[in-house]
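AIM24 family protein, pasting as requested.
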Amino acid sequence: MNQQLAGFAPTPVTARMENHGSTMLKVAMATGQDLFARTGSMVAYEGFIQYEPNPPAARQIASQWITGEGAPVMKCSGDGLLYLADYGADVVVINLDNDSISVNGTNLLAFDAHLTWGVEKVKGLAKFAGQGLWNVVVQGTGWVAITSRGTPIVVDCGRGEDETYVDPDALVAWSPNLKVKGKRSFKAGSLIGRGSGEAYQMAFSGQGIVVVQPSEDSTDRLRIRN
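Structure tokens follow.
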């Protein structure tokens, strides 16, 4: 039996964050290198690792994008290997180098605690969407892990002059320096099936990337604030 399961054993550590398979994140924890992770995402760990739900450093920021459920992040500290997952979603690891990324709160799995982060209104959509839309912006030099419902596509918006249009329910993350605006379109064909007849897209332009998942999960996507 051990031989049959050998292919699933932990692999040698090569980076602070890396994939173990496509749907699990492995984090090499060390003293002084704390981590913020989505609450409830821990599936296993080795060594001595402590968890602090709703840490003071994150409480005020986190409460801005989720209400009635407490802070959606926990602080992880200690030495060992930490494994995180989010209901079988694909995990994408990003190593920021004095850079930033804007992520849907539901797609943010984990990030180094020393990174700067906050909830920001998506510019260019306030008039279009009423009260506006919000996202989590993480910036600095360090590691970030995001999730995708299926294998995502990363679109390079700088390859051409045309805008890139994305269904908000399929949007995972994007470069914050991109220009964003909203667009509505109406097609009679969309009245058939689950469509409402009115389609809403987000248009991106400029130099940067957009990460799109092959799923239209609208449970908590780019929530409109009151």
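Note for the archive: The chain has a mean pLDDT of 82.
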